Amino acid sequence: MAGQTLYDKLWDAHVVRRNDDGTCLLYIDRHLVHEVTSPQAFEGLRLAGRRPWRVSANLATPDHNVPTTNRAAGIVDPVSRLQVETLEDNCREFGITEFGMDDPRQGIVHVIGPETGATLPGMTVVCGDSHTSTHGALGALAQGIGTSEVEHVLATQCLIQKKARNMLVSVDGEVGPGVTAKDIVLAIIGRIGTAGGSGYTIEFGGDVIRALSIEGRMTVCNMAIEAGARAGLIAVDDKTIEYARGRTYAPQGNQWQQAVAVWRALHSDADARFDHVVHVNAQDIQPQVTWGTSPEMVVAVDGRVPDPQAEPDVVKRTGMQRALDYMALEPGTPMVAIRLDKVFIGSCTNSRIEDLRAAAAIARGRKVAGTVRLAMVVPGSGLVKQQAELEGLDRIFLDAGFEWREPGCSMCLAMNADRLEPGERCASTSNRNFEGRQGQGGRTHLVSPAMAAAAAIAGHFVDVRTFGQTDIEAVRTASR
Amino acid sequence: MEPYKKFTGIVAPLDRANVDTDAIIPKQYLKSIKRTGFGPNLFDEWRYLDHGEPGQDHSKRRLNPAFVLNLPRYKGATILLARANFGCGSSREHAPWALVDYGFRAIIAPSYADIFYNNCFKNGLLPIVLDTAVVDGLFNAVAKTDGYTLTVDLENQRVIAPAGTEMRFDIDAFRRHCLLEGLDDIGLTLQHVDEIRIYEKRRAQQAPWLFTEL
Ligand code: SF4
């Protein structure tokens, strides 16, 4: 018998029941809850007279709607405020732990889960949010679900699911200086496309993934969904275990030893069989910038805006043309010639401490270009913010002319007051460059934190590798 | 949920690939704490020329006359014809809620994003997968014929063209059964309460740290 993949192992350990047709009841260890996708689920519970199956499996926080300035003033928009209050009310009514807006542990669900140890290796993790794939970086099976499933998990602690297929994306070799986790995952999506992982769970492996820090691995798994895969996974190693050690909800004492013994087996067996394998050569990966309205529309920073006329497939060609019209770009324009109105450093992709360190390494002692209207740094959580301030990163950003904000999703999707105005162009460390994502008519280019900081300083995209050896070294150290 | 019955409806063609759920229903409408009322804001940024906010009277807004759903010939459409990777991006179930609230009962496309596909079934919306070539053919047929209709027969897994041509589609047996019977997933799962309890007990012994109180 062939060995098992990491996905096989995680799946098997959580099957409660298997029907003849292969549909399974899968047990869920951790459920993260935020204000946007949960109200209708709680309402459903109430209408059916049901209670949460296991209250302590749930952890809630508001993140999408919260303001990133002046928290004390509360939420101005009444519709947003009602949604955040509804989360509070529901958590109170059902006894669910919530890191409320004033809690120092509040933050983006996908940042607070790992950093508090609420999400751990070997768990099944779900959340009514597609970027739940992030937690797969810890060797957990983590997936985004819809609101009906949120209600289902609340009521039964299970999910009805069929197993996906196994894909391995192996990134081998060594990346060059200035190339970070974000560039790696953008390059992967550029290669396999936004539907490339559809129907699969992607395990990311190879020397380059192993060399990444846990934060970097989270950036990679975060964007697995942008490649069409519901879940991304990375094998547990010493770094994973060191990361989990001592976190608030991580096991202690005897249980820690027991857990570590179990976690050590959380990797694909040497003879495991994958349904599909993709090899990516690390040497080929340059710092990336998206040019269009889908994460697969991406090129290296020294590249140019592509020409739709060169695309033979008609559906793709019209898609490219539509994207260029929306983005107001001409084919052949060098990426470094694209000027920016705003810069956003934040989101569940790139708002952890090392992302901020990497951006600060570039911003240190420099100034945001006068043509950039707003450059903002939004830490992923209150704990990230505290740590950054302890390290003086806030001063570096403020001195350079960046705004230093309160934690939340912010301009990743612009549900709060942070947004692009029609026609504004933004370098963003988030994960989606869809039409209107950061504000109606807004134009989003996805980049790494170091590339975003460099763009803010230059006022246009620029190859971060031209920023001098010391700075690049600093970015590299920040990402270890 | 209502049992899903065979029906015939007008087909509206949305000729772009990778339509994401942000486009299906923009973020400002996600602030609602209800499941209904999203229909007027389906494809909001394509459908209207002005910016919309929740609570607005949408009948007073400026329509984009070029957008397909605003063309008189597609009025009352219940079947959406779409391209590959429909519903990619955010997991928001507001996307199928908006499609259903607008009046759609089925979508036909070569492929869908996983989470969206799954969400459709929870809301009595049938996402039908047909080959790219067949979908291409349908786009042509819809363009040629005003008021083009198709019949969707879930029971026999067929889409039937006006001339009687039948196009077979595959669908997971469990999902088909749930739709046809109008079954509720939670009720089904709760028939297995004992098995869930037994699993939990075993896990709590093997891996007690998974049951830490938060
Ligand atoms: S930061 Fe952006 S992608 Fe992440 S959970 Fe928030 S809105 Fe979603």
The profile of the biggest β sheet of chain A is: 5 strands, parallel
Give the overall average pLDDT of chain A.
Answer: 96
The beta-strand count of chain A equals 19
Q: Would you tell me the overall average pLDDT of chain B? A: 96
Q: Work out the strand percent of chain A.
A: 15-25%
Computed Rg of chain B: 20 Å
Largest sheet of chain B: 7 strands, mixed
Which pair of chains has the greatest number of interface residues, and how are they split between the two chains? A-B, 83 and 60 residues
- Given the C-alpha coordinates, what overall shape of chain A results? globular
In terms of quaternary structure, what is this? heterodimer
Radius of gyration of chain A: 21 Å
What is the number of helical segments of chain B per DSSP (H or I, 4+ residues)? 8
Could you say which structural class the secondary elements and strand pairing of chain A correspond to? alpha/beta
Describe, in short, the structure shown.
With 480 residues, chain A is of the alpha/beta class.
Structure description:
The complex is a heterodimer of chains A (480) and B (214). Chain A is an alpha/beta fold. Chain A has helices at residues 6-14, 39-48, 78-94, 109-116, 147-156, 181-192, 207-211, 214-222, 238-244, 253-263, 314-327, 353-363, 382-390, 393-400, 449-458, 469-478, and strands spanning 15-18, 24-27, 30-33, 58-60, 97-98, 124-127, 141-144, 158-161, 165-172, 200-205, 231-233, 276-281, 288-290, 298-300, 342-345, 374-377, 403-404, 425-428, 443-446. Chain A is globular and about 55 Å long. Chain B is an alpha/beta fold and 214 residues long. Chain B has a 7-stranded mixed sheet with strand order 4-3-2-1-5-6-7. The longest helix of chain B has 14 residues, at 193-206. The two termini of chain B are 35 Å apart. Chains A and B meet through helix 2, helix 3, helix 5, helix 10 and helix 11 of A and helix 4, helix 7 and helix 8 of B. Bound molecules: iron/sulfur cluster. Residues 63-64, 108, 110, 129, 131, 347-348, 409, 412-413, 430-431 of chain A line the site of iron/sulfur cluster.
